Amino acid sequence: MMAVVSRHYAERGTCKMSVETMNVVIVGHVDHGKSTVIGRLLADTGSLPDGKLEQVKATCAKNAKPFEYAFLLDALKDEQAQGITIDSARCFFHTPKRHYIVIDAPGHIEFLKNMVTGAANAEAAAIVIDSKEGVQENSRRHGYLVSMLGIKQVFVLVNKMDLVDYDEKVFDSIVKEYSDFLAELNVKPINFVPISAFNGENIATKSEKTPWYKGLSVIDQFDALQKESLSDKHELPFRFPVQDVYKFTEEGDDRRIFAGTVSTGTVSKGDKVVFLPSGKRTAIRSVERFNATDNQSAASGESVGFTIDLQLYIKPGELMVREDQVQPHTCQRFRANIFWMGHAPLIKNKTYKLKVLTKQIIVKLVDVVNVIDASEINSVQNKQQVDRHDVGECIFETTKPISFDLAADIPDTGRFVVVDNYEISGGGIVLEAYDTDETLIKEQADSRNQSWVDGLVSSQERSKNYQHKPQFVIFTGELLVGKRAIAMELEKLLLENNIKSYYLSSYNLNLGLDNDIQDNLKLEDDRSEHVRRLGELGNIMTKAGLVFLTSFTDADDYELKDIEKLSSVEDIFIVNVGGNNFSDISPDVQLAANPDEHSAAKTIFEKLLPKIK
Ligand code: GTP
Ligand code: MG
User: Fold this and answer.
1) Which atom of ligand 1 is nearest to the CA of 37?
2) Ligand 1 touching residue 413 (CB < 6 A)
3) 454-495 residue pLDDT tens
4) pTM of the predicted model, to two decimals?
């Protein structure tokens, strides 16, 4: 039975489901009984494979170990892992009404991980509280996380009622205390159910032990949850984070497929689309699916591929949206609420990795607006860092613009996680985007300019003496298109014409650095340091009155704009060789790949001359 159910889910992306399914996340303080509740749900709804319960009980007896319902989850993990990969935190059970995917979230990390992977696209949350221990720190923290994630349907299971003799008073006091807490978060739980997960009271049927309880059993409570209608998500603006880009393998076919899962909205063949943050525009040529003939349209939740009309160079991590709909924000600075669980606190000006949808980027904490202790909802004034288990309202800045929505508009594209030292350390929601040019790099350049100590020779005097103005020339384009050969030729030509210049291979820029820094510079997602060095060096060389030539492989609009902000010249001179990868910038000179370097250098020289004379 189980195998059939799980295979059914594994095929989600490729076939339309006829059975309704619902994602529910189970949270709660450690040992309050989350796994036992899930084990019970599996057993009492007949969702276990035949003989599984008996088998696990027998193994326990053999090893003289008391039976635990939580063991069922472990036993199933091995089984479900065979053949098809299934997220180990997920379990499946079904009622006559629908199928449920329950996510067992033993701790904050799992909870947040599930949230990023989309597993916790939870439509509802069940919070388990031990009646004997009462409301504990994590009962509150998880309540906070649930509210922060915008999970709308929340119910509370007051567990281990057997340990307090099914006392109504104990139950009532927990209901009071926890409802008051949730009320501060604007969360209104739909129900509190007194249960004994271990003994199965109020799980499948109403228990005789709690005649004073008039509400639903747990299973009925699950069935009473409202299905978030798919059409709600379909009606939101179309958002498609590009996960992978595949090239067609047939010869002469240079089409690419953009693969991923539609986050929200719908799109059809012929719709005009924009890739963000690059800003490249085209239209949908076809929708590609495995074993499916429909290539006309796609909607939220579907894993599909798209081909497009123009052959654009798009990197995974871009967000594809429809041109005719509300656009997401594309910027570097934003305000967010973040729940921090890193061992080391979140501190200002340190770099972290931000993951938003399929995009990863370097981020810095610019400012802490407010810090809240999530278990008390007290705001801690004047804190300049966010400690483990605190919630911080913070301002972040990424090294390059990213595209996202505000969580209040589209929750799915308004969430992110922060990685510190290869570990997910925080999860957050975006509250506000700042569409401003005031970025850290700009601030850096401004403060450097303010402190700069000049010599006695002004730049005008220098230019007069050299009989030309300085210029910063950057060669861009893919690897191995002949950038270096042309630049070297140009340097020679400039010298022959009495123009003072210097060519620096950007390879040289990294020499003499220790290996760690060199490795970092090679990382696709940390070219920001390279950009900074190039900009600073360009600033010095042009201040010295030179025509400074260098190359920067695969530079994009944003990187070039940052280099420009750092350098002292007003406009940098861009020579692009080979395919043009810009959305906004138009190069001063565009050359075909691997041209004859002599004539290429001449072409550039002629264009450059009027700018420096
Ligand atoms: P973590 O995953 O470690 O956070 O714990 P959990 O919340 O999943 O708790 P789990 O289900 O493992 O239960 C913890 C202990 O409480 C186990 O020993 C269970 O047998 C026991 N327990 C769970 N439910 C009940 C109950 O209704 N009554 C009693 N008496 N014990 C229970
Ligand atoms: Mg557990």
Assistant:
1) 11
2) no
3) 999 999 999 999 999 999 999 999 889 999 999 999 999 999
4) 0.74
